[in-house]
Amino acid sequence: MTNAHVIVGAGLGGAKAAQTLREEGFTGPVVLIGDEHERPYERPPLSKGYLLGKDEREKIYVHTPHWYAEHDVDLRLGTRVTAVDPAAHQVTMADGSVLAYAKLLLTTGSTPRPLAVPGAELAGVHYLRQAHESDRLKDAFQPGARIVVIGAGRIGLETAAAAVSAGARVTVLEAAELPLLRVLGREVARIFADLHRARGVDLRTSARIAELTGNARTVDAVLLADGTRIPADAVVVGVGISPNTDLATVAGLAVDNGIVTDEHLRASAVDVYAAGDVANAYHPFLGRHIRVEHWANALNRPQAAARAMLGQEVSYDRLPYFYTDQYDLGMEYTGYVEPDGYDQVVFRGDRASGEFVAFWLAGGRVLAGMNVNVWDVTEPIQKLIRSREIVDPARLADPLAPLESLSNSAG
Ligand SMILES: Cc1cc2nc3c(=O)[nH]c(=O)nc-3n(C[C@H](O)[C@H](O)[C@H](O)COP(=O)(O)OP(=O)(O)OC[C@H]3O[C@@H](n4cnc5c(N)ncnc54)[C@H](O)[C@@H]3O)c2cc1C
Q1: What cofactor requirement does the entry state (predicted)?
Q2: CATH topology classification for 5-111+241-309
Q3: What digits encode the pLDDT tens for the residues 125-158?
């Protein structure tokens, strides 16, 4: 019998869970296993400050190199877990070695979806998930270089902004009618289209990619279904991510758009937990399972999972939160809305000024809020959402009406 707590996936989530186990006083073995060769790091800078050359490499890491030994965390890098056996309470590594666990946390994250067109395997076609891929992009983003970004989601748009800042000539190709359409809806997505076009990005929406063409095995153009050829020195693909659920599936855990967990972050096998990008967890406030691919979720939810592993009463109900920085636009988004789940968008402040808050409402209730270049409002926005009260849209739109005063229970 072991009392080892084993964490598979050494990203932000895994590192925070290990830290919490120690902070909460667990004295048994903690093993943190990751298949990357870098110690755990944060990914947001890879498409922002680090890619722009503003942040030092050291700034991306979750802990110092010594932290793991100092806290008696057995960090095993470059190590892939190939199987989980929930009945035997053990995991198997790629070299065949076996490790027994008392409690297991899966924080295996996600992987960029591959572009499924001919030529996608050519040199010069980039994805962005790992630190070394950000280094390669930095090299490709030269003044005058022709960069084609496929996918106008957050990663695609942030990458486009970094390429523009480096002096590259940037084309962004998006299958939908607008960038970020599914997440933000038409009213707000337009703002991001205008932002990039104003910076000289050639944003082409409703674009269908037919093929990537190459010259001596290196990409030289993107061919669209309508016959348009867009010359490219490098292509960046950002067409979404898939949760890394293979281990869980083979282990027989319930998997449905991620590893299914309850609100206590427990997966469907005893003593197995999941958190971060890979988990599709029941959210008590929203009353449904959601899988969240955001930094704040990878920061906080694995800490909750670690406490649950220690037998503490945990019910995770933080509202989803994410942020993005593109050029001089910084935004935070709090809440959750299905693509067709709102009937009104209310703007507070002047959109043209670049400083405003957008609210998504259904039946007069605020479901989500996004503050753009306006800061320190996340808490009142969360309170408005949590109050579930019907608010007066005119007051919501009025920057002089304190957000704290808009619902009876808020503030
Ligand atoms: C470029 C970029 C920019 C981003 N910017 C933002 C942002 O601005 N705002 C925001 O909210 N979010 C952002 N995100 C999202 C955020 O970084 C993720 O939500 C977060 O990294 C998820 O953390 P995680 O620990 O769940 O998974 P990951 O960070 O994916 O870590 C999982 C780790 O597990 C490893 N692993 C997987 N399977 C195995 C296995 N079988 N054995 C061993 N190891 C395994 C993986 O290789 C990986 O190292 C960004 C992501 C990227 C890539």
Answers
A1: FAD
A2: FAD/NAD(P)-binding domain (3.50.50)
A3: 999 999 999 999 999 999 999 999 999 999 999 9
